[in-house]
Amino acid sequence: ILLKKAAKIDKGSGEPNKNKVGKVSMKQVREIAELKLPDLNTTSIESATRSVAGTARSMGLEVVD
Questions:
Q1: Closest C-alpha to 7, from 47, 49, 63
Q2: How far is it, in rounded angstroms, from Cα 19 to Cα 56?
Q3: What is the rounded distance in angstroms from the CA atom of residue 27 to the CA atom of residue 12?
Q4: pLDDT (tens digit, 9 = 90+) per residue, 1-31?
Q5: Which residues face 63 on adjacent strands?
Q6: Could you tell me which of 22, 62, 26 has the C-alpha nearest to residue 34?
């Protein structure tokens, strides 16, 4: 839900490798990772950021710098 709000989309892509439905910045990904850190099974913000970025890509979102 946080990624969809950041990208301003209603739903992810049915074909995430072919059809990109939006973009999120690394800054947004890091902010989401900081919010989700207590729920993730990692203590490192870098690992949490990579996890959230991977989720974004699997939804069809492009992660940009």
A1: 63
A2: 13
A3: 20
A4: 899 999 999 999 999 989 999 999 999 999 9
A5: 24
A6: 26
Burial class (CB in 10 A: 0-12, 13-18, 19+), 28: buried
Q: Indicate the pTM of the whole model.
A: 0.91
Radius of gyration of the chain (CA): 11
DSSP per-residue string spanning the chain: -HHHHHHT-SS--SSTTT---EEEEHHHHHHHHHHHGGGSS-S-HHHHHHHHHHHHHHTTEEEE-
Residue 16 identity: P
CA dist 10 and 39 (Å) reads 23
Tokens standing for 21? 């439905």
- Amino acid identity of residue 29, one-letter, is V
